[in-house]
Amino acid sequence: MEDHISFILNDLGEHREKYFNAMSPPIIQTSNFVFPAVADFRNAILDELNSHIYTKGNNPTVEILRKKIAALEATDDALIFASGTAAISMTIMSCVGQGDHVICVRHPYSWTATVLSRYLVRFGVTYDFVDGSNLDAIEALIKPNTKLLFLESPNTFTYELQDITACVALAKKHNMLTAIDNSHASPIFQQPAKMGVDIIIHSATKYINGHSDVVAGVVCSSHAIIKKMFIDEYMVLGGIISPHDASLIIRGLRTLPIRMERVQSSTQVIVAALKGHKAIKRILYPFDVDFPQYELAKKQMTGCGGLFTIEFDFPDIETLLKVVGKVKRWKIAVSWGGHEALMLPMAALYNLPGRDNPHIPWNFVRFYVGLEEPDYLLEDLLEALEI
């Protein structure tokens, strides 16, 4: 029973008899905890990860969330961070030292690329980006000092996947750790630990919280890896989440499965209706039969969520931006995973002063399907395409 998703989301870690039998856990909004005796304080210091000494380390509200997230990802433990970027950065830092090497799939989340290319290089850590679908290309980049293979499957704009089981086998062959950003799939639709991945990361800002009112990240792994990261990175760098934000994410988790089912079903309706439209070259959606890695997506994931990308067939940026300007029910924004439909036109990032143009073509627009009725969103988009 304790591994049943309903138990995890509604009961795991929640000892209601300790807080007046309240249905929702309290927000322990405190910075400090007191001890009745020196002996109690000494014992807590010896196990700070599992004790309540200072909220920078472990807080009871955050601890409930840790237990739920770890169980959802089928790992021993988890840490909760102030952002997905903090979770990614501290994961990579925990795996490498000066002179070490990281292999990362190409086109990852922008801040993953940034922490490797602009931050860790300052401390003697080298890296290579690689086509994650090509195992031979990955193996060709492995060096004696390669410590980490960083995956993101799928990524969150063009949705390239990696064969996770094969990547894990390759990494183990060369005594490397594996980490994966699992934000796209959520723990509802993909559990990489069951495929052997060492460290699983999420931007909890997105599906896990699901209400567009919290920025957070999570890292799930073994007891040993989490304890080391807690001591060496989490406590040192202090990228913690507040108890209040943790309580909001606990609330969001209650509805995670039904939200994932809803956005997936709506997305499939919308993608099917848009295919073949004269203004569209192609639609990228991993669970669409025409997606290049469709079979792998179906093998590794039990569902696919609410992201899809359209490659439009317009002659110029101006025409694309005119269409985007006519769309009203999809809000222009970064991120995704909340209750509201969003779109991110790549053209908006072109020709910005002092910036290089993105590697993704200007005629790509990413769409996120929220909890709205699919016909409501589809009607709006089809009207905008009548040019």
Description:
The chain has 387 residues and is of the alpha/beta class. It has two domains: 5-254, Aspartate Aminotransferase, domain 2; 256-384, Aspartate Aminotransferase, domain 1, CATH 3.90.1150.10. The chain is built from 14 helices and twelve strands. It has helices at 5-10, 38-45, 60-72, 84-95, 110-119, 135-141, 164-173, 186-189, 223-237, 243-254, 256-274, 294-300, 317-326, 374-384, and strands at residues 77-81, 101-105, 126-130, 146-152, 177-181, 199-203, 217-221, 280-284, 307-312, 331-332, 342-345, 364-368. A seven-stranded mixed beta sheet has the order 1-7-6-5-4-2-3, with helices on both faces. A five-stranded mixed beta sheet has the order 8-9-12-11-10, with helices on one face. The longest helix is centred in the C-terminal third of the chain and has 19 residues, at 256-274. The chain is globular.
- Provide the β-strand percentage band: 15-25%
Shape: globular
- Supply the helix-strand structural class: alpha/beta
Helical coverage, percent range: 25-40%
Cα-based radius of gyration, to the nearest Å: 22 Å
Output the CATH homologous superfamily of the largest domain. Type I PLP-dependent aspartate aminotransferase-like (Major domain)
Low-pLDDT runs of 5+ residues are none
Order of SSEs, N→C? HHHEHEHEHEHEHEEHHHEHEHEEEH
User: Main sheet: which strands, in order across?
Assistant: 1-7-6-5-4-2-3
- How many domains? The number is 2
Distinct helical segment count = 14
CATH domain topology of the largest domain:
Aspartate Aminotransferase, domain 2
Corresponding CATH architecture of the largest domain: 3-Layer(aba) Sandwich
Average predicted confidence as pLDDT? 97
Describe the main β-sheet briefly: 7 strands, mixed
Q: What is the distance, rounded to the nearest whole angstrom, between the alpha carbons of the first and last residues?
A: 55 Å
